Amino acid sequence: MSKETKLSHxxxxxxxxxxxxxxKKITERVAVAHATVTMTPETFNLIMDKKIVKGDVLGxxxxxxxxxxxxxxxxxxxxxxxxxxxxxxxxADNNKDCIEITSEVKITAKTGVEMEALTAVSVCALTIYxxxxxxxxxxxxxxxxxxxKSGGKSGxxxxx
Length: 160
Description:
The chain has helices at residues 41-48, 57-70, 72-75, 114-132, and strands at residues 27-38, 86-92, 98-109, 140-150, 157-158. By secondary structure, the protein is of the alpha+beta class. It has one domain: Molybdopterin cofactor biosynthesis C (MoaC) domain (Alpha-Beta Plaits). It has a 5-stranded antiparallel beta sheet, covered by helices on one side. The protein starts with 26 loop residues before the first strand and ends with a strand.
């Protein structure tokens, strides 16, 4: 970060603040985030066969991720409370020992939804861990990142 880069959550006196979005334009904004949960092949099979005693792991985790996106401003201090248009959670299970989680969050507003998308995949991954920890305490939650975003003043971003 150069000396001239200004952090938007810090005021001229160095105090934390919520960014003022009053003058920003309302635009359609989309953010996509990713997370991975790695586990033993046995745990993976229990999840896929819906044999975890706490229930449908991926179904419950999907609902948890959606709920988390909606409550992001209650968890992250400087996030604006937002009325989200859409939250979607998808899974890919291309391997036999990990579940890839993707969230897509959409809004038409003055501020973006990157934090909502990241919160969604994080809580989704934590829910998978919570529901399966009795079978596999060695699960690893990793690779949480913003995959892409569109809309707003800063424009589009796509992770390499």
